Structure formats: C-alpha cells, structure tokens
Amino acid sequence: MAKLMNSATQLNNSAPVHLLVPENTDSSGDKSFNSELFACASSSSQFKLIETGNISAFSGKYTMAYPTGPFETPCYKVGIAWADTLLGPYKKILQQDTGNVPCNPAAQAEVVYLLQSSQPGWPNYVNAMVQAPGVPSLVQYPAGTWYLYFAGYDPSVTASGGMFNPAVRQPYAMRLTFAIPLNTTVSATANTSLATWITAATN
Predict the structure, then answer these.
(1) What is the pTM of this model?
(2) What InterPro entries does the record point to (predicted)?
(3) Helix (H) or strand (E) holding 194
(4) How far from 133 is each of 16, 29, 66, 95, 99, CA to CA, in Å?
(5) Sign of the C-alpha dihedral computed for residues 141, 194, 114 and 41 taken in this order
(6) Which residues in the chain come in under a pLDDT of 50?
C-alpha cells in the first residue's frame, strides 16, 4: 500500500492506495494463486503476504519488484508487477498452469515469478544457483546496466525441518535484460509479452 504525504512530516488526508495485493478466491474459484500461500501451498493456512515492494520507472511505465512467501523457506520468491502510473494498479505476470504445478486445485492462471526455487516445473526455477530469492530491488550500475539485487541462500545450505537459518542468508546480484516497448501500455499488454519486458541476462 502507499500513503500520500504533504511533506516529510505530514500525512495527506487521502486514503491509502492498494498497489498490489495477494489474490484471494472469488465466487468462481479463480485468482486464488496457491504460489502466494505463506505456508508453501499448505492447506493448513490460507494466509498470504506480498512484502517489500520496490518500484522503479522504465520507458514511462512502473515496475514493482516484490517477494512473496516466508523468507526462511524455499517458497520465498521474486515477482515483477507492472503499472502505467506510480500508484497502480500493478499487474502481475500470469501464465496458464495446465499441469497444476503450484498445487492449484485445477488448471488456472498462476503467477510467473522472475526467480523461484520451489517448483522445478515452473518458469525461472533457479534452485541450482540460489535458494529462496527475495527482497528484490532494481539498481542501475554502471550507467545503462541494470541489476536485480536480492537476498537468498546458497544451494549448499540445507533447510532443517523446511526452514533455513536466516543467519546464513547472503546478498546476490543478477544482470537484467530489458525489452520494454515505448508505444504501448501495461493495461493493453498480454501476459506473454509482459513476461519478456524484464528477464535475466544470458551473458
């Protein structure tokens, strides 16, 4: 959420704005993304959390890099959402999950994460390089070169009882490739195209 301020010490009277929220099941059963469950798609808890969203501007559009899931488990992952204005609404990147990979009850749309280490059959599985990637931010350095900075666990680290020791968490950086068109809007762009706007660099 975001709250407007009149100054560094005074809040604006306007209501907070929802920028990006976890999806809850609607009356038809759609949009309940199990990949956002805090308990790693466990039916024991329906709690969901999107946290530490960091926003950057590119080509007249806004992108929010955000993590979801518990940071001390393999289910922590990095998502990217897009908007045409700073205060959104932000659009998640989705793909039809025909194989029920993130444990959805039926074939439906699911979130495509920029980095995830919990589902081998889902895009951008990076478990061989880093576990539980999260707390992402986009940083330009040097000029013209963009990186995703994030935290995670080395692949050699073992999760005891499904939980990592946060004391061994460490920083990572990954170079990014951008392919953001100038003559379109986020709202008019299909998910298959949004997924190509920011990707991991291959060299």
Answers:
(1) 0.87
(2) Glyco_hydro_beta-prop_sf
(3) helix 191-194
(4) 28, 29, 10, 20, 24
(5) positive
(6) 26-29
